[in-house]
């Protein structure tokens, strides 16, 4: 970490497999840094209060609300955004199951689903329900989203990894 002598500091973030230098203020959220400094706008800015999950990213494989995470707290930890899951099976399952309407909530759901598939590959319906409660869909497409999540878990059983 290098101070530039002003109120800003240069830190290195590890995002989607790449190391990036970013200049931040100590109070900058990870969401701000991803969107404004790195141009990774897949994480959406909505409630900014931890309530909706639109800003979900993975930090060390754990789903986090990036609106409540400080950029400085993620130094040294791998961050994955929706841009890092291009061409992933999880993303394709959401498309195949029509689990996208306006798409605003979709990156957050996909990242949350990716973490669920890694941590609870045999999740039952109630675990899926509970896990996905951290994300809201304003278009209320929950049925299709659940079908997509189930399809991801099913694919994983059949040997898919991504
Ligand atoms: S924008 Fe972060 S939880 Fe809503
Ligand atoms: S698809 Fe529109 S908010 Fe979920």
Summarize the structure.
With 162 residues, the chain is of the alpha+beta class.
Search tags:
162 residues; alpha+beta; Ubiquitin-like (UB roll); DNA polymerase, domain 1; 2 domains; six-stranded mixed β-sheet; 5 helices; 6 strands; elongated; binds FE2/S2 (inorganic) cluster
Plain-language structure description:
The chain is α+β, with helices and mostly antiparallel strands and 162 residues long. The protein folds into two domains: 2-83, Ubiquitin-like (UB roll); 87-157, DNA polymerase, domain 1, CATH 1.10.150.120. It has five helices and six strands. Strands 1, 2, 3, 4, 5 and 6 form a six-stranded mixed beta sheet that branches. A hairpin with a 2-residue loop joins strand 4 and strand 5 (62-65). Helix 2 packs across helix 5 (142-157) and helix 3 runs parallel beside helix 5 (142-157). It is elongated and about 50 Å long. The two termini are 32 Å apart. One FE2/S2 (inorganic) cluster is lined by residues 45-48, 50-55, 65, 67.
Question: What is the topology?
Answer:
Blueprint: E1 2-3, E2 8-15, E3 18-25, H1 30-37, E4 56-59, E5 62-65, E6 78-80, H2 89-96, H3 106-119, H4 125-132, H5 142-157
Parallel strand pairs: 2-6
Antiparallel strand pairs: 1-2, 2-3, 4-5, 4-6
Bound molecules: FE2/S2 (inorganic) cluster (2 copies).
Domain 2Fe-2S ferredoxin-type: 9-85
Protein name: (2Fe-2S)-binding protein
GO molecular function: 2 iron, 2 sulfur cluster binding; metal ion binding; oxidoreductase activity
């Amino acid at each position: 970490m290098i101070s530039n002598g002003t109120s800003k500091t240069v830190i290195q973030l590890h995002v989607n497999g790449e190391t990036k230098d970013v200049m931040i203020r100590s109070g900058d959220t990870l969401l701000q840094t991803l969107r404004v400094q790195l141009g990774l706008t897949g994480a959406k800015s909505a409630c900014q209060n931890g309530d909706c999950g639109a800003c979900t990213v993975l930090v060390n494989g754990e789903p986090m609300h990036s609106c409540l995470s400080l950029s400085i707290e993620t130094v040294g930890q791998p961050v994955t955004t929706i841009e890092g899951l291009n061409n992933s099976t999880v993303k394709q399952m959401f498309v195949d199951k029509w689990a996208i309407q306006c798409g605003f909530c979709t990156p957050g759901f996909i990242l949350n689903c990716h973490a669920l598939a890694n941590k609870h590959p045999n999740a039952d319906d109630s675990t899926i329900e509970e896990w996905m409660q951290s994300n809201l869909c304003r278009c209320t497409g929950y049925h299709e989203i659940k079908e997509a999540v189930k399809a991801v878990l099913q694919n994983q059983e059949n040997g898919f990894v991504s």
